[in-house]
Amino acid sequence: MYQLQDSVLVVKGIGTNLQKSLQDYQIENILDLLLYLPLRYEDRSAITTIAEIKKLSVEKTQIQKSSENQKVKTNFVTTKARVVKWNEYRKGRLLISRASIADESDQINCIWFNNKFLKNKIIVGQEYFFSGNLKEGNLMQATVEKISDDHENIHTGRLVPIYSQLADFKQGSLRRILAEIISKLHQSGELEQVFKDLHFPSSIDHIITARERLALEEILYFMQISAQNKREHQKKNSRFQLSSTIKNQIPKLPFELTTSQQKAIQEILIDLQNKVPMNRLLVGDVGSGKTIVAAIPASLMVNAGQNVCLIVPTKILAKQHYQNLAKLFKNINFTLLDSQSKLEKIEQGTFYIGTHALLNQLNKIKPSLVIYDEQQRFGVKHRQLEEYLEQKKDYPHLLSMTATPIPRTLMLSIFSHLEMSYLDQMPNSRKMATTWLIPQFKKQKALEWLTKELLNTTTHKKQALIVCPFINPSSYKAMENVSAVKESFEFINQELKQIYQKLKIDKKYQLKIGVLHSKLTKLEQLKIIQEVYDQKIQILISTPMIEVGVDLPNADIMIIQSAERFGLSSLHQLRGRVGRQGQDSYCLLFSSVNSAQNQDNNLRLKQFCQEKDGLKLAQIDLENRGAGDILGYQQSGLNNLVFASWTNSQIIKQAQEKLKKEPNYQSFLTDYLQKQNSAQIIESIGN
Ligand code: ADP
Ligand code: MG
What is the DSSP string of 577-642? Predict the structure, then answer.
């Protein structure tokens, strides 16, 4: 009998050599091996008679997609037949084996290449399962399995698991080993069934149920870590507590705060008076006015003689914040810091603004409040901040701000250690970009319109941003992402040439295009951005990296290439980048699928053109599971989940109920997930 925590060495057929190579896959114990899940399943369950096989159209491939993205390939046929003839011959270096097999209905040929083991396996006159691809009337490279007495065939005659390459295992031996482990699992019958359904399911529904079980365990694990973090946080002391009499000191502003801004500010102020340090996330759409919500409480801390750090992702944003805030808060002492600037002497009561370089200075600055702006990448650990915090008994208050629309229910249930404030109202002066979906055949017309708009500078100098989706979102530095930008540049350039000719535009008025991608050096990137600021560039083509890094107040028009590849939330964040100063702005969605091809996608994009509310769009994304990078979590680092998905609200609810009944429930995935380090998100989202 095996236990989940037993080393893989206990398994018959795994020796020290295999054990070593399995370590490269982080597989050490039985549970790790059992969680090496099939990549897909092949349906070899339906037994087709040979007569039916012959009728089948040749090589018809059909991918059946179940709701959990489990691909089941159905281009395979399986038949149960007797071998009537067998022969083998060589053609050069190629060994060709042939068998004629027959059932009551008809007869067909099977062909194999270079399979020297078959000879010993196949006995003429015996009956087997044959599963293979149909090609030109023959069954190719079929898997042959003896018909077992106890109906427990694992390689054919059922949904068969297909794994990605693991160490030196052949598919067949991996299957055998997993089947043997499951049969000897010394666990409650229920878990045994889960693993059986994951590897040797009797139906697709069983796979889904079993996967959902893993997802549930993972969510349970997260909830527990979060609760634990909260308990630990409660024991900490804040370095400084604002006095409760400061409420009237809010400075005069050139605009009126929205109700949700006022509410968020009050929530923060109450936290700042507390002995337990604040750990709050401020969520609000692009343009909802998060900066001022953070800056008002921060200014009160500074007035009380404390230091505050505002950490932003880029130098450019740091400078923008610095300039804007210095204008609004005339009596406050601001310092802009980047990796080049030296911090000579610390003056108490200073508002420090800078990039992550600020983190190196925490020991000197000793802030009482640390604010993270646009903390898009929650998954990234801020090691310096953590190290700094670890040594402290007295903690700074922490406030993170994000435009990633994280639904309230999700935050409340999973990230319970974080307090949340939502800005769900837009300042009145801010208009969302008018959005159009541009069909393929209207692209040229749209670009002509764009050219005319950009050349018409009667009101102000206009600018456009063209965004190409990441082809490889897991790494924004991937080469394909760069070539997507370059390709887009070629396309736009070609089109513009024709438009200039058509409109008879003189060379000296022609538009300057800039290109921004990750293969440029930091310096080159800054130069391009500066040129955009200085209005020397009218069209900027970029990957979605502008989503985080750059604020271009003059941009009026945005074109999003292959818009169908973005989740609606990501699209929404992108379009928030134009019209920042309240000017009329436009967002043009170029879709590369034609409408007949993909009704759903078009519908989704059309909804997007109508809907201006970020949280509602996040909800639509939720309902359209599988729509690209749902909620932009891909970019936000919130996607480190192994089994679950943040969007599965059903499972999140189940987990909540389970913990209510069994507060001390220990997920059987705890050790496994700890090894995967997925809890990083929880730890860093609040820190
Ligand atoms: P974000 O939430 O994207 O960080 P910002 O804080 O940069 O948004 O605010 C966007 C713009 O809106 C800024 O120019 C800011 O001064 C302005 N703003 C903020 N709050 C209001 C308000 N209540 N009324 C009018 N303008 C506002
Ligand atoms: Mg902002």
Answer: TS-TTS---EEEEE-SS-TTT-HHHHHHHHHHHH---HHHHHHHHHHTTTSSSGGGHHHHTTT--S
